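Allow me, if you will, to draw on your knowledge of protein folds for a short while. A protein sequence and the structure tokens that stand for its backbone fold form the material at issue. I would ask you to consider whether the tokens describe a fold that such a sequence might reasonably adopt. Thank you for your consideration; the sequence and its tokens are set out here:
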Amino acid sequence: MEKNGNNRKLRVCVATCNRADYSKLAPIMFGIKTEPEFFELDVVVLGSHLIDDYGNTYRMIEQDDFDINTRLHTIVRGEDEAAMVESVGLALVKLPDVLNRLKPDIMIVHGDRFDALALATSAALMNIRILHIEGGEVSGTIDDSIRHAITKLAHYHVCCTRSAEQHLISMCEDHDRILLAGCPSYDKLLSAKNKDYMSIIRMWLGDDVKCKDYIVALQHPVTTDIKHSIKMFELTLDALISFNKRTLVLFPNIDAGSKEMVRVMRKKGIEHHPNFRAVKHVPFDQFIQLVAHAGCMIGNSSCGVREVGAFGTPVINLGTRQIGRETGENVLHVRDADTQDKILQALNLQFGKQYPCSKIYGDGNAVPRILKFLKSIDLQEPLQKKFCFPPVKENISQDIDHILETLSALAVDLGGTNLRVAIVSMKGEIVKKYTQFNPKTYEERINLILQMCVEAAAEAVKLNCRILGVGISTGGRVNPQEGIVLHSTKLIQEWNSVDLRTPLSDTLHLPVWVDNDGNCAAMAERKFGQGKGLENFVTLITGTGIGGGIIHQHELIHGSSFCAAELGHLVVSLDGPDCSCGSHGCIEAYASGMALQREAKKLHDEDLLLVEGMSVPKDEAVSALHLIQAAKLGNAKAQSILRTAGTALGLGVVNILHTMNPSLVILSGVLASHYIHIVKDVIRQQALSSVQDVDVVVSDLVDPALLGAASMVLDYTTRRIH
């Protein structure tokens, strides 16, 4: 048995208080039930589960085929602050007999409800080990205080996000007793969206309702400001009535103020309004389908800012109840929801949108991690908690194999010849790389991207890497806000007006970022390379084409039409060679790999390329590398072509110095080292004296396109405030 010092089954007591915590605890309970050789499960039901006004939700536990060992009626009705305190007291009176009878080895407690505080207090005082789910998070109101109080009582902690883990460490909890597992409900969420859903939508909202054309509303009282939260709920209902969309309204939880909120619903006739369906409870499996296919969710439930992000459904979070939580970009916060117009404006902004799927709170593998963590608990260890003073340093790896995971990104590089996908760690290490030839058609290309990303994501699990998102580097003009390739280079065919974000996000359930390869190279230098810490610098890519990226005041410049930093198309001669862009005399027409290949072919056709020590097999195409080899072996004409190319690039750099005045210019790509000395000579001869001291260097990054694509994921900040 996978236990440390235990020679018997671990007796686990799971106590559930309401419909919300059961959705998180049920996956763990199912997991425990599937391993009877390791665990004995006792289920205790209390709180609003046993109240008819809140749906008698204990029945769904029975429907899931769990034996309920104990039912405790602990709620004192009144739905005000005093009733909450009395309910905690009643639970504290009743729980000792139950715990004495069950004698669990460990009690699993979820979240931040007042019922959970009674459970944790009873277990701690009766010397029963406590495993707390979802500690370390920050939301708002009294919930934070209760959650952190339970943290101090608990012996073991399962958290959902890296920030929550750091909060627990800062609260002096023992690092070795913290498991970053993700939210257990995500294990069910991420496999749910593709199931049949229209029958569920019709059952709850009517036969005439279409997918993405209805709203789910779930709003709870804020116990620290009940009067304001009731007023906000009234404004929300008024806004929903005016918005005139079919709406499923769930009754609030049992917190103080809920009775007044129900009165507001009835005063406005919500239960009889043709556009509304008011319900006390929806089974979690069905609720998942309803929010996954809704046009919008509105309210202040934690479900909106946590679980709904897995589907990319737009969410409007009202007030302060969840304002401290980490959120995906699908969440629009309306912090001061004090007017009906403001809520209506938010509905108009959000309704019907589709955002990238977010996995901030989990990757679908939480339960296996939690079960392994439970098996590792040594009952022979002293029960007394240890607190770690001072807080442990940041980024200390945990020394148990079920927690060790590397935060990583999937990086995709779409080049003219090859398609590459890599798993890139937070430190810029390429953990694994996959390369295929880039197909010529759109269908083949998008299918290959999806296939390679799915395979890489699966491999990441085996490599203990947690994928945070996907970054894509591609040639051409890109709208990074929408994830669309607007116009591609001639090197990548059938690649105009292509939405890359949606198919990858839908397939992988991950957020996706897309940008131009030149911009990605600049971002790679900013995060991992010689631009790190610099306020202003420019990157020039010298490869098949010529591209670049500009960092100004630490930010990447995209331009008004996403055309900034097309540095390869700076004109350095009015009568120069034709360029692929349709103009002539551009840097790219002189200094790109395509330009050098063109000149190499001309020399080869005239028998002027090869010198002693060189040969080009008949089945091998002449390339820029042959020109460079000839120049190194003393071919004067090849040397002259390289000087001209380097001079053109140098003139372009001079123009950049005079226009942007950066503190550094970084030459990147396979040709950079062949041009660097010529470029510096041109700067000395042509640039103003005030910019001649600006350093020009060759990048030391091996894969700037992949690293830049990864940096979009690793640097992204998800919170949006309205």
